[in-house]
Amino acid sequence: MSKRAQPEFEALLADARQDPDVLAVFLFGSRSRDGFADERSDYDVGVVVSDREGALMAFDERWPYMHGSSVEVASSTLSQLRDHGEYGTPSEWARYQYADVSLQVDKTGEVETIIRGKQCVPDEVRAGVINEALGGYINSTYRSLRNRMVGIELGAELDSAESLPNLLTAIFAFESRVRPFNKYLEWELRTHPLGEPAWAANVLLPRLKAVLSGQAREQHELFGEVERVARREGFAGAIDDWEPDLSWLRGEASYRA
Fold this sequence. Notes:
Elements: H1 2-18, E1 22-28, E2 43-49, H2 55-62, E3 71-77, H3 78-83, E4 102-106, H4 110-118, H5 123-149, H6 153-173, H7 185-191, H8 201-212, H9 216-232, H10 236-240, H11 246-250
Parallel strand pairs: 2-3
Antiparallel strand pairs: 1-2, 1-4
C-alpha cells in the first residue's frame, strides 16, 4: 500500500495548496504518531474547506471518501470541524483523533487553533465529564464484584471490562486530557505520562490487565486509588453517593456486614 499511498497523498497536498477553498490538510491516526505506521497503513487525512456553498461538494467530487483506500479523506467545512468531536454531540467519541495530528497545510492558522482546542477537556465541561465517568466506573465495578460474590463469573468479567473505559475517561479528565483510543493508551502513558503516580504506565497497565482477568483484590485496590484522587480533585460527591458500600468497594469490609 505504501508505494501507492505516498504519491496519492502528495497529489492530494498539491491539489489542496492550489485550491483557494481548501483551508487546511492534516494527518491523523497511525501516520501522525511515531512507531504506529507500517507498510499496510493507509493515510488518514483530514481536509477542511471553506463554508462557501458548494465548496465541500466540489472537493468531494475530486477526492471522495472510500473506506479501505490507500488515502482515506475525511473532509469537512470549517463550521463542521468546529462542531466535530465536541462534548454532547454524537461525534464526541472521535475527539481524541485531534490529540496528535500532523498539520500539513493551514492557510489561515484558524484550523490549528480549532484543533488545539479539541486536544483537551474544556473547563466548562470537565466536571460533568468526570462525574459521569466516575459514576459509570463505580457502577460497573460494583456490579462486577457483586456478580463474583454469587458466582456469575461471566457477568463479573464483562462488568469489570465495562468499568475501564469510564475509569480511563475520568483519570485523563482529572488532568483535562482526552481519553486516548485503546490502541494508543500505552503510548500516551509512556510518552505523555499523567502526573498522578498511581497512573504511571508501569503501575496502571498491569493493574488494568489484572482487573480484566477478574482479580477482585485488584479491583478493590484500584477503587481505593480512584477514590483518593477523586476526593483530592474535588469530586467527593461522586464517591459518597455509593455509601453504605464504600468500605466494601475498598475491600475493607464484607458486603453490607
